[in-house]
């Protein structure tokens, strides 16, 4: 059955439980070419199967378009939902929903809200802009996807994810939101790919657990541009096993921050010109930072604070305003190969009780202070590589028993 609106307006008086058009306990219904305004729900689907809502405008309702009450296989496409009091599109307790080609703007809560028990929902090629809350808001469902969608200038976060698992969001633009670009909380195995995440008021991407690392783990950020965010490009708080690969992090408040996390990998990224550290590890365990380029960060290129068993391998760190690598406290960290060149401070600085650090086969050249500086850090191993052309000492060891500086080749000129 098809309800053809022919562009007519279905107007109401705004009763909370009212609906401009309600589809209930039926299948294979199409609603198209209609404007609904002034209702509790502009369009409401309840226990509807394989229903299509297309080319409609929902304006000035409570929720613009609601798909719920165990509806299955519904599609909302080429629709507009604007200036509704709550959500532009609200999917709750509905499975296999497709939202595609939809514009949700200036709604009082979220642009697109996928609530509890709504597994298998996909948001594709849509726009969520200028809403008071989040652009796209995902809660307590699985197998969700947001693809090719713009989330811009919303008052909250661009993409907000809570207690969901095993899904991928790709080819999105997340820009100019008042909160974080993407906020993932208490969720597992979320992949963010091939997206632009820019100019957000908080972090570009924030991963966080309120309950412990097992509740926010296994996330992947890959092949994306994360730039000009007020906070970190990526900030991971108690999130284990994150993989950050092949991204550009430029001009953020700080590049990549991992705190109280284990088993993460940061590899093959460009992390440059950020306003603080390029990479910052705080109380982490067994994190790998490898084969990254880190030019021109305004503090240290890579900074470790009380980290354990980190492996920094094959990184190119240049023109940091402070040190190329600064390791403070912690134990068992390794700096392997890599180039540390033209940094404002030391090429590599190991200090303040860091123990059992290994610095092996690195090149530390033409830095503004020392090539390699070890202070108050016992049993540091300096093995191979060379330091040359640094403005201070090529290698200096202070109050660090069990540390032999002779393992590094030194030259005044390079």
Task: Please tell me how large the radius of gyration is.
Answer: 26 Å
CATH fold label: Pectate Lyase C-like
Low-confidence parts, pLDDT < 50 over ≥5 residues? none
- Work out the helicity level: under 10%
Derived from helix and strand composition plus strand pairing, the structural class reads mainly beta
Task: State the shape.
Answer: elongated
Percent of residues in β-strands: over 45%
CATH-scheme architecture: 3 Solenoid
Q: Can you summarize the main beta sheet?
A: 27 strands, parallel
Count of spatially separate domains: 1
Oligomer: single chain
Please tell me the overall pLDDT: 95
Let me know the number of strands: 50
Give descriptors for this structure.
Pectate Lyase C-like, mainly beta, 17-stranded parallel β-sheet, 27-stranded parallel β-sheet, elongated, single chain, 414 residues, 0% helix
Structure description:
By secondary structure, the protein is mostly beta strands. The protein has a single domain, classed as Pectate Lyase C-like (3 Solenoid). It is 0% helix and 47% strand. The chain contains no helices and 50 strands. The strands form three sheets. It has a 27-stranded parallel β-sheet that branches. It has a 17-stranded parallel β-sheet, with no helix packed on it.
């Amino acid at each position: 059955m098809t309800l053809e609106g022919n562009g007519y307006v279905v107007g109401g008086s705004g009763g909370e439980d009212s609906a401009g058009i309600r589809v209930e306990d039926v299948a294979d219904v199409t609603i198209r070419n209609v404007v609904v305004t002034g209702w509790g729900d502009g369009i409401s689907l309840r226990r509807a199967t394989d229903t299509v809502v297309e080319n409609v405008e929902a304006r000035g309702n409570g929720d613009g378009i609601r798909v719920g009450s165990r509806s299955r296989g519904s599609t909302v496409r080429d629709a507009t939902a604007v200036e509704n009091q709550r959500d532009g599109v609200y999917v709750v307790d509905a499975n296999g929903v497709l939202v595609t080609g939809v514009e949700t703007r200036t709604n009082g809560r979220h642009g697109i809200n996928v609530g509890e028990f709504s597994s298998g929902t996909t948001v594709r090629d849509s726009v969520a802009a200028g809403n008071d809350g989040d652009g796209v808001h995902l809660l307590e469902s699985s197998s969700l996807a947001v693809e090719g969608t713009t989330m811009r200038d919303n008052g909250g976060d661009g993409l907000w994810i809570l207690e969901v698992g095993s899904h991928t969001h790709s080819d999105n633009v997340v820009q100019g939101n008042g909160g974080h670009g993407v906020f993932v909380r208490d969720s597992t195995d979320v992949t963010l790919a091939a997206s632009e995440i820019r100019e957000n008021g908080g972090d570009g991407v924030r991963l966080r657990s309120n309950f412990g690392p097992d509740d926010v783990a296994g996330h992947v950020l890959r092949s994306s541009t994360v730039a000009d965010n007020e906070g970190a490009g990526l900030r991971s708080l108690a999130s284990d096993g994150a993989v950050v690969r092949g991204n550009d992090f430029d001009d953020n408040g700080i590049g990549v921050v991992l705190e109280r996390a284990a088993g993460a990998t940061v590899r093959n990224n460009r992390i440059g010109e950020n306003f603080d550290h390029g990479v910052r590890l705080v109380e982490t365990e067994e994190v790998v930072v490898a084969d990254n380029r880190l030019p021109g960060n305004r503090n240290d290129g890579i900074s470790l604070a009380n980290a354990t068993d980190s492996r920094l391998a094959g990184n190119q760190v240049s023109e940091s305003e402070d040190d190329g690598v600064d390791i403070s406290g912690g134990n068992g960290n390794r700096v392997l190969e890599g180039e540390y060149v033209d940094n404002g401070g030391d090429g590599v600085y190991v200090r303040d009780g860091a123990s059992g650090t290994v610095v092996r086969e690195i090149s530390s050249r033409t830095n503004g202070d020392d090539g390699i500086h070890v202070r108050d850090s016992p049993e540091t191993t300096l093995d191979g590589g060379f330091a040359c052309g640094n403005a201070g000492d090529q290698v200096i060891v202070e109050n660090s028993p069990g540390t032999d500086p002779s393992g590094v080749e030194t030259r005044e000129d390079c």
